[in-house]
Specification:
MetI-like fold; 14 helices; flat
């Protein structure tokens, strides 16, 4: 036994640890695959290939155009300025409704964390109105605000307000008592306390609410424009899709849908991702 211990002690490190590598350089392919952007790009390319294959197999442009025909139509409509103009018309209304919804959500949430009646009010109205589809409010919006941007903004506020308020309030309630006590020990009260303690600590939940509110608002806007999208100029992307459906220009319909998807991907993976990278990831508050 003593001889075995001496042999082991005198053996080279490489011989003892030669059974497996402690550290290995990743290959170029592995480095690429570790990049989330590359993985998402592969998924998108796969879905695009499935789209093209199905369109070619079906061979009926009136039902399902190929990806090639859709991109060609999209290129033509971008070149003549139709889709950029329609997209901008939609985005302007979206910004108005989204901003107003965030402001109202902030007011409701501040009231909820300040008083018990504010909490009861937020929980009650959320339980009442959050399950109500925004598109169901279109008839009332038409009566109250007429055929214009006011009606669109109204339904967008409904889409944004409740998810943002719910997630923000939930995030505030999950802030640890230790952080709350630190803020109070520094003499923070009211809005400074909310801005310097609660918002940074709960920003992960707040950002989730903003993402959900954006998704709800974007799809609600397109659906609303399909019904009354001629309120400003020639309408937005939803009305563009509806018009071309009536004309049986199905590649143009798919070009409009593809534009909606591209804008959604851009906002989610570039804008919100940049905000997340510079806030919750940088601060180390991401769960």
């Amino acid at each position: 036994m003593g001889e075995a211990r001496i042999l082991l002690r005198d053996a080279p490190v490489a011989a003892v640890g030669g059974a497996g590598e402690v550290e290995r350089r990743l290959s170029f392919a592995e480095l690429l695959w570790n990049d989330g952007f590359i993985r998402k790009a592969v998924i998108i390319l796969f879905l695009a290939a499935v789209w093209e294959a199905y369109g070619v197999t079906l061979d009926n442009p009136l039902l399902f155009p190929t990806l090639h025909d859709t991109i060609a139509t999209l290129y033509d409509r971008v070149k003549d300025g139709t889709i950029p103009m329609r997209a901008w018309a939609s985005l302007k209304v979206l910004f108005m409704g989204y901003s107003a919804g965030i402001v109202l959500a902030a007011i409701f949430t501040i009231l909820a964390i300040s008083t018990r009646i504010g909490t009861d009010f937020l929980e009650t109205v959320t339980a009442m109105f959050n399950p109500l589809p925004a598109i169901a409010l279109l008839p009332l919006a038409l009566i109250w605000f007429g055929l214009g941007n006011g009606s669109l903004v109204f339904v967008l506020i409904h889409s944004v307000l409740w998810p943002v308020a719910l997630n923000t309030h939930s995030g505030f309630k999950s802030v640890s008592n230790t952080l709350r006590m630190v803020g109070r020990n520094y003499g923070l009260r009211g809005l400074p306390y909310v801005a310097k303690i609660l918002i940074p600590a709960a920003f992960g939940s707040i950002l989730t609410g903003l993402k959900i509110g954006w998704a709800f608002a974007w799809r609600t806007l397109i659906a609303a424009e399909l019904v009354f999208g001629v309120s400003s100029g020639q309408g937005g992307l939803g009305w563009f899709i509806f018009e071309n459906r009536n004309l049986l220009d199905i590649p143009a319909v798919f070009a409009g849908l593809l534009t909606v998807i591209i804008i959604g991907l851009f906002v989610e993976n570039l804008i919100f991702r940049a905000i997340e990278r510079n806030t919750v990831q940088k601060w180390g508050t991401q769960s």
